[in-house]
């Protein structure tokens, strides 16, 4: 199984939104094979609590304008690890220390990486 076109479209919007707010080290993983409830994880690093919140808010706003609705949002008040669940796309916006500590890339290392550079270039 591979990520749906809808998930990839949402991913492209989320990647550009995260980049516009200074999101760093963007990694997208196609988790559609092992997980029945979502297609793609997007991992983003922010450099401060305020930056993490700004990145998450921008992603949520851009996807809402495109017709998507966050089904779940966790961690917004702390600004250390914010999870945004859009159904077929789950976005994890981390503070640098949390990203290193939890190591989601290691946990999901058997899942294919979805290249994000072409998504950024397409938005230019």
TrEMBL record:
Main location as per UniProt: cytoplasm
The GO annotation for biological process reads: cytosolic ribosome assembly; negative regulation of ribosome biogenesis; negative regulation of translation
For this chain, one GO molecular function annotation is: ribosomal large subunit binding
Which keywords appear in this protein's UniProt record, sorted alphabetically? Answer: Cytoplasm, Repressor, Translation regulation
Q: Where in the cell is it found?
A: Cytoplasm
**Protein's job:** Functions as a ribosomal silencing factor. Interacts with ribosomal protein uL14 (rplN), blocking formation of intersubunit bridge B8. Prevents association of the 30S and 50S ribosomal subunits and the formation of functional ribosomes, thus repressing translation.
What HAMAP family does the database record attribute to this sequence?
A: Iojap_RsfS (MF_01477)
How is this protein organized at the quaternary level?
A: Interacts with ribosomal protein uL14 (rplN).
Query: What is the similarity comment for this entry?
Result: Belongs to the Iojap/RsfS family.
Classification via NCBIfam families:
rsfS_iojap_ybeB
Its name, as the record gives it, is Ribosomal silencing factor RsfS
């Amino acid at each position: 199984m591979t990520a749906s076109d809808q998930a990839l479209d949402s991913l492209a919007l989320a990647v550009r939104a995260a980049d516009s707010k200074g999101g760093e080290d963007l990694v997208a993983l196609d988790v559609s094979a092992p997980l029945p409830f979502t297609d793609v994880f997007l991992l983003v690093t922010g450099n401060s609590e305020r930056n993490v919140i700004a990145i998450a808010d921008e992603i949520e706003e851009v996807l809402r304008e495109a017709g998507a609705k966050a089904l779940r949002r966790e961690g917004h008040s702390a600004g250390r690890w914010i999870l945004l669940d859009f159904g077929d796309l789950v976005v994890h916006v981390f503070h640098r220390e949390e990203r290193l500590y939890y190591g989601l890339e290691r946990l999901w290392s058997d899942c294919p990486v979805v290249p994000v550079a072409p998504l950024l270039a397409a938005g230019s």
